[in-house]
């Protein structure tokens, strides 16, 4: 699950989930 990926990202980029 890439939940922290979206949460850790400052900008809400859910489309680019995978790059923290």
TrEMBL record:
<comment type="similarity">
    <text>Belongs to the PsbT family.</text>
</comment>
<keyword id="KW-0604">Photosystem II</keyword>
<keyword id="KW-1133">Transmembrane helix</keyword>
<keyword id="KW-0472">Membrane</keyword>
<dbReference type="GO" id="GO:0015979">
    <property type="term" value="P:photosynthesis"/>
</dbReference>
<keyword id="KW-0812">Transmembrane</keyword>
<keyword id="KW-0150">Chloroplast</keyword>
<dbReference type="GO" id="GO:0009539">
    <property type="term" value="C:photosystem II reaction center"/>
</dbReference>
<dbReference type="InterPro" id="IPR037268">
    <property type="entry name" value="PSII_PsbT_sf"/>
</dbReference>
<keyword id="KW-0934">Plastid</keyword>
<protein>
    <submittedName>
        <fullName>Photosystem II T protein</fullName>
    </submittedName>
</protein>
<dbReference type="Pfam" id="PF01405">
    <property type="entry name" value="PsbT"/>
</dbReference>
<dbReference type="InterPro" id="IPR001743">
    <property type="entry name" value="PSII_PsbT"/>
</dbReference>
<keyword id="KW-0793">Thylakoid</keyword>
<keyword id="KW-0602">Photosynthesis</keyword>
């Amino acid at each position: 699950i890439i939940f922290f990926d979206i949460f850790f990202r400052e900008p809400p980029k859910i489309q680019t989930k995978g790059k923290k």
